[in-house]
């Protein structure tokens, strides 16, 4: 680990131009790590761009640099020699259009914290002990002789906060908190970050939570809680493009519930199913049965069928696993 | 500060018996600090008891030592010579029955983080820079030559988490995060703490949130959001004894909202009003107008009158302050 940290820093100093990429459906750690490293490379006078398949979710628009993240179709000429993959366990995680765009011989730098990382880089910095890729980037910066500005600090702090559930998930180590402490000393604008991440929901998002809670059910043994949003609910609230961030967590918040589920009919006959585990159950395995995937405690799948049929199929499967 | 830290540690080592008290309607920092210090004194072979006017809220029952917190009526003989006030800005914060119980000459040790602390102790350790009283206690322990056990770490970590909104409020300093890091190294059981604090709500609490959200209103300028729970709602859900923890925060979570309010009719003609501010508005001042009080960003008051009358009176007053 330590070796690669200094090897990677030497490479970053040595080379001159970079495409920074992250995974499709980007989360806070992906966005925060990309922007953090991009701003550092900018201070090092390196030519670099950031590239994502999917749009930056609005809650991250407050981060300085978020509007400099490009899509493949934004770029006409592609003469960058080095690619930095961030927060991607394999090369395909960037999504199809970005993967096509990158599809030729380039020098690959791979920085990630997923234990499943396939070590696909010419050089790899993969630390599964790190709570977030942003934690690794923060450790890299002193070796690049760059001072952390408040904009860099905001981006990296956001990455860590989002991947640790505000330092509540078990991936939060004493090292994570030390790094967060260092970022605060480097100028994180805490109120700005908090308001943008947690206190800037649209009125419609709150109405969507209300609608979801109206459907809340708990199994007779108290171990499964689920909510549903039908396509009619979504049309009624006019929230087709809204990702129901955080709503599913209300299922897991109930005492005794081991698995929380949100069934969301995104179009007639298509149901997206989100899974959350509180502790012992591995929901990634459950999601996998239905062609999905994810992490042990947060996973998802996309099923075809009527909402009621999907519900009974999935609930039976979860019951089996719990029993 | 530093001086008092070592002075207090010397006193704690020198003296032999203690009553540890906290404020009425105790919160996580109050409970966590009391238990943390109690377990430390236990390891120092000091005779000590913990005393509170109000019951320990159920979410803190998981903390080892929480069932050793007594009420004044539990104690027949009172021959303790020293009182340690924790998290109390003045002596009356302990509540009437505890204040009566303590009402004679004793040596007073006052440990707190409120800037308004009246320094009423024979010796005072008041640090408004600390996010929580539990942060101060953590700093005190090394001077007492006691090793932090996992039970002590869980209690103090809980105090800090609850007073900083999971390290999101602006009172979270780089020092706070370093102290939290040290507690994790000392054995905090993170999953246990997270599940008990945030994922152990009763089904009824979630139904209460749902009922509250059904009444959500936002002012035409988008700066005030409010919800209400009538006495009929509370009776219907059979939640008279349930404190609607965290529900009010959903008002503040909406973009643009500066002040969030929850009106809760606790009995016919009595309305408890909770205020939350997102940033610039000092809601303690607003609550004060109605005979209440609190902090700049979280305050409350108890008003007499019909729910609708109280609502219009309070909303007008908040509007005036915002304009």
Blueprint of the fold:
2 copies of one chain form a homodimer.
Chain A: H1 2-14, E1 17-21, H2 28-43, E2 47-51, E3 69-70, E4 82-86, H3 96-102, E5 107-112, E6 123-126, H4 133-140, H5 150-163, H6 174-185, H7 190-198, H8 203-214, E7 217-218, E8 224-229, H9 231-237, H10 249-252, E9 259-267, E10 270-277, H11 283-289, E11 293-294, E12 298-304, H12 307-322
Parallel strand pairs in A: 1-2, 1-4, 2-3, 4-5, 5-6, 8-9
Antiparallel strand pairs in A: 7-8, 9-10, 10-12, 11-12
Helix pairs in contact in A: 2-4, 2-5, 4-5, 5-6
GO molecular function (chains A, B): nucleic acid binding
Protein name (chains A, B): RecJ
Pfam family, one (chains A, B): DHHA1
Low-confidence stretches of chain A: none
Shape descriptor of chain A: globular
Strand content of chain A: 15-25%
Most extensive interface between two protein chains, with residue counts: A-B, 45 and 45 residues
Regarding quaternary structure, how should these chains be classified? homodimer
Number of domains of chain A: 2
Please work out how many helical segments of chain A DSSP would assign. 12
- What is the rounded Rg of chain A? 20 Å
The average pLDDT score of chain A comes to 93
Describe this protein's structure:
The structure is a homodimer of 323-residue chains. Chain A contains twelve helices and twelve strands. The longest helix of chain A is centred in the first third of the chain and has 16 residues, at 28-43. Chain A has 323 residues and is an alpha/beta fold. In chain A, α2 (28-43) packs parallel to α4 (133-140), α2 (28-43) packs antiparallel against α5 (150-163) and α4 packs antiparallel against α5 (150-163). In chain A, 39% of the residues lie in helices and 19% in strands. Chain A has two domains: 2-198, inorganic pyrophosphatase (n-terminal core) (Alpha-Beta Complex), CATH 3.90.1640.10; 203-322, Diaminopimelate Epimerase, Chain A, domain 1 (Roll), CATH 3.10.310.30. The A-B interface holds A 161, 165-170, 172-178, 180-182, 184-185, 190-191, 194-195, 198-203, 206-207, 209-210, 213-214, 216, 218, 250, 252-255, 257, 278-279 and B 161, 165-170, 172-178, 180-182, 184-185, 190-191, 194-195, 198-203, 206-207, 209-210, 213-214, 216, 218, 250, 252-255, 257, 278-279. Chains A, B: It comes from Candidatus Syntrophocurvum alkaliphilum. Chains A, B: Residues 246-319 form the DHHA1 domain.
């Amino acid at each position: 680990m330590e070796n690669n940290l200094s090897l990677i820093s030497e490479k970053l100093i040595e080379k001159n131009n970079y495409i920074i990429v992250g995974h499709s459906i980007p989360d806070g750690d992906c966005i925060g790590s990309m922007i953090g490293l991009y701003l550092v490379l900018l201070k090092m006078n390196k030519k670099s761009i950031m590239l994502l398949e999917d749009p930056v979710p609005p809650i991250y628009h407050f981060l300085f640099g978020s509007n400099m993240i490009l899509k493949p179709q934004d770029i006409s000429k592609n003469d960058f020699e080095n690619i930095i993959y961030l927060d991607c366990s394999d090369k395909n995680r960037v999504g199809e259009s970005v993967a096509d765009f990158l599809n030729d011989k380039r020098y690959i730098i791979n920085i990630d914290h997923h234990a499943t990382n396939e070590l696909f880089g010419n050089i790899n910095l993969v630390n599964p002990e790190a709570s977030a890729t942003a934690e690794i980037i923060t450790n890299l910066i002193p070796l690049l002789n760059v001072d952390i500005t408040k904009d860099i600090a905001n981006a990296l702090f956001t990455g860590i906060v989002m991947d640790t559930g505000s330092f509540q998930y078990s991936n939060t180590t004493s090292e994570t908190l030390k790094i967060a402490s260092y970022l605060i000393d480097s100028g994180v604008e805490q109120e700005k970050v908090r308001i943008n991440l947690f206190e800037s929901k649209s009125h419609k998002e709150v109405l969507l939570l209300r609608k979801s809670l109206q459907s809340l059910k708990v199994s007779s043994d108290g171990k499964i809680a689920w909510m549903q949003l039908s396509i009619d609910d979504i049309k009624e609230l006019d929230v087709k493009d809204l990702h129901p961030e955080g709503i599913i967590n209300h299922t897991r918040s109930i005492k005794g519930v081991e698995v929380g589920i949100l069934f969301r009919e995104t179009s007639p006959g298509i149901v997206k199913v989100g899974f959350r585990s509180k502790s012992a159950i591995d929901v990634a395995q459950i999601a996998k049965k239905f062609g999905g995937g994810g992490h042990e405690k947060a996973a998802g799948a996309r099923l075809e069928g009527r909402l009621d049929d999907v519900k009974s199929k999935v609930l039976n499967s979860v019951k089996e696993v719990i029993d």
